[in-house]
Amino acid sequence: MFDRGRRSLLSRRRTPSIPRMPWVVDEETFVDQCTRCNKCQSACEENIIIKGDGGFPTVDFNRGECTFCGDCAEACPEPLFRPTTETAWDVKAQINQQCLAQHNVECRSCGDMCEVMAIRFQLQPGRVAQPQLESDVCNGCGACVATCPSSAITMVTS
After folding, report:
1. What residues form DSSP beta bridges with 156?
2. Tell me: the pLDDT tens digits for 18-52?
3. Where does [4Fe-4S] cluster 2 bind (predicted)?
4. What's residue 2's pLDDT?
5. Does the annotation place 107 within a ligand binding site?
6. Neighbour tally for 3: CB within 10 Å
């Protein structure tokens, strides 16, 4: 006999901290209906979709940014995605204390990669310029994640 309370440890129903993919209807539908055919992974022009927990596809921002091309949703044979005309997801960048600029080391790599200019640098007297993240401008593309030399940027659900 087994303890049903521990069953979730072996289950594929772990809720990720951010959505696995842009435009996903919801996590439960995704896990129930995704066949793990890898068509989304093959269709991704940026090669940022990998096999995650349980073999389910997931975006890995350490590999690069999402261009929101919609090819992953278009390639999927299952009804897992909302229309790509809608906002892809509610994911935003977050800069933590590992940021080199916060340790007075000149670095602007995240701001240089941010196409929508959600990360800007504000001059500080006696210190290097500090990153200022405008969450309402951030589109959640993740371009800043892979370029950060200190892994100080993570993507979070806002």
Report:
1. 92
2. 899 999 999 999 999 999 999 999 999 999 999 99
3. 66, 69, 72, 76
4. 44
5. no
6. 7
> d(Cα 33, Cα 51) in Å, to the nearest integer?
16
Tokens of 84: 């790509």
91, 157 Cβ separation under 8 angstroms: yes
* 99 annotated among ligand-binding-site residues: no
Judge whether 114 is annotated as a binding position.
Answer: no
* 141 marked ligand binding residue: yes
Per CATH, 14-75 and 91-157 having the same topology is answered yes
Query: Is 14-75 CATH 3.30.70.20?
Result: yes
Mean pLDDT rounded to a whole number for the chain: 91
55 is written with which tokens?
């073999």
For the record, the structure tokens of 12 come out as 């594929």
Q: Provide the residue count of the chain.
A: 158
d(CA 97, CA 103): 8
Q: Is 148 annotated as a binding residue?
A: yes
41: helix, strand or coil: helix
| 124 strand-pairing partners | 127
Residue 29: CB atoms within 10 Å: 14
Q: Are 114 and 143 in contact (CB under 8 A)?
A: yes
Is the domain defined by 91-157 classed in CATH 3.30.70.20?
A: yes
Q: What is the pLDDT of residue 8?
A: 45
